[in-house]
Amino acid sequence: xxxxxxxxxxxxxxxxxxxxxxxxxxxxxxxxxxxxxxxxxxxxxxxxxxxxxxxxxxxxxxxxxxxxxxxxxxxxxxxxxxxxxxxxxxxxxxxxxxxxxxxxxxxxxxxxxxxxxxxxxxxxxxxxxxxxxxxxxxxxxxxxxxxxxxxxxxxxxxxxxxxxxxxxxxxxxxxxxxxxxxxxxxxxxxxxxxxxxxxxxxxxxxxx
Length: 208
Hints:
Blueprint: H1 12-23, H2 28-43, H3 46-49, E1 53-55, H4 67-75, E2 79-85, E3 91-95, E4 102-105, E5 113-116, E6 131-134, E7 138-139, E8 145-146, H5 152-163, E9 168-172, E10 193-196, E11 199-202
Helix pairs in contact: 2-4
């Protein structure tokens, strides 16, 4: 493992810029290769093998690719939920029915997202998931995740906690994004596992 950024830099914004700069240097070939490898590794996870419902997301830009994984889960008969970004940065959810069920949506000046165009299931739909795949920029040796900073998944994790739901929390990253330590805040919660193109690392077991 390595730590990106100087040890005294505990500012999340600085770290996000550094990780994003590395991602932005990836080529289209890099993205294709890592997407296929990531799907293969993730599908080996017992938590996904036995899941009836998985809450996931559609990767955009230089994020680790998720479409191959979404299609593989759906082919297994898994109910796949995808987020719809709301005006207050909370997330609604819709069902993934294949790539043709996605629409490209631009929220203000942000990068366009691919969201399900079908029925909206409500923000609480995520509480029915057996596993939740989380986007991020890094994870550390304790399982603490560095997110993009929008706060949407902080709300998701808080909603799961309020509902007494205990899905497996899995973050999808590149190998270089597993680091020694990232800054944390009191509301941050560790994930159970990280999947990278080269393998899986576990941090804790999901509650029964």
